[in-house]
Amino acid sequence: MGSIYSEFLKLKRSMSWAVVVLLPVIMVFAGAMSTFAGEGEFADGWHTLWPRSIGFYGMAILPVGIAILASLVWRVEHKNGNWNALMSRPVSTVQVVIGKVAAISLLAAAMQLVFVTVVIALGKLAFGLPGMLPAQYWLSSAVVIVACIPVAALQSALSTFFRSFAAPVAIALVVTGVSTMALLVGIKAVSSVLPYAVLTQATQLGTILVSGEGTSFDVYAITPDSVLFFVLVSAALTVAIVAGTSAILNRLDIRA
């Protein structure tokens, strides 16, 4: 917990909180307003508002947002010899790596909570939708938070070895696009191998409309099996990435 707390102290003057708040707010407004402008209503209430809001956000923006957060978290370590101070602390390399991944994952979780809050606020206050956000979208949000962790781990690894702020973000943008295209053309192999593809699919979990319309690729329904799939795959990818990053760091003499 001490490592995570120290990471958040380092972020006090960064732009991380702007990323956490502004990206989901902008994307929910964009998705909701474009639907309302085009169709004049949310035909299936929450079951229209949620898929329209999370569609493009989950397939393109969220992974890039996590990449920006990872670059911000590691940026301070690449300045003024802070890297040497970090690696000389009386903690193991794997603890350093886990502390960074945990901080980035918590920021990503905060992004999803902001997303849910804005969807509810718009649905109730702006569009007067009846009832409350269905439980299935709360559950899918929990799965999204879990699926963010391997992406946070991979982006943390990239930001560890790239002193450039932009390079890891550019890689995330390109690989996210490739992952989404692979899903669109039906290459199932990427679904459990690339963290970005896993996250993209998690965001689309249960987003098939009542009318039967869905995203451009086949999405999972929310079932115990699909939830377990995302949890296990995310856990396995995270363990592998953290172990690989720690092993490489232990063998390299990197100085900022």
Can you offer a commentary on this structure?
It is a single chain. Helices cover 73% and strands 0% of the residues. By secondary structure, it is an all-alpha fold. It has one domain (3-254). This is ABC transporter. The chain crosses the membrane at residues 15-34, 54-76, 97-123, 135-153, 165-187, 227-249. Keywords: Membrane, Transmembrane, Transmembrane helix. It comes from Rubrobacter tropicus. It holds the Pfam family ABC2_membrane_4.
Q: What's this entry about, in short?
A:
By secondary structure, this protein is mainly α. It has helices at residues 2-10, 16-39, 46-75, 82-87, 93-126, 135-161, 166-184, 195-203, 224-251. The chain has one domain.
State the main characteristics.
256 residues, mainly alpha, 9 helices
The number of domains is: 1
Beta-strand percent range: under 5%
Per DSSP E runs of 2 or more residues, the count of β-strands stands at 0
* Assembly form of the protein: single chain
Principal-axes shape call: globular
What would the average pLDDT be, to the nearest integer? 86
Contiguous uncertain segments of 5+ residues: none
Protein name: ABC transporter
Pfam families: ABC2_membrane_4
Transmembrane segments: 15-34, 54-76, 97-123, 135-153, 165-187, 227-249
Keywords: Membrane, Transmembrane, Transmembrane helix
Blueprint (SSEs and pairs):
Layout (H helix, E strand, L loop, with lengths): L1 H9 L5 H24 L6 H30 L6 H6 L5 H34 L8 H27 L4 H19 L10 H9 L20 H28 L5
Helix pairs in contact: 1-5, 2-3, 2-5, 3-5, 3-6, 3-7, 3-8, 5-6, 5-9, 6-8, 6-9
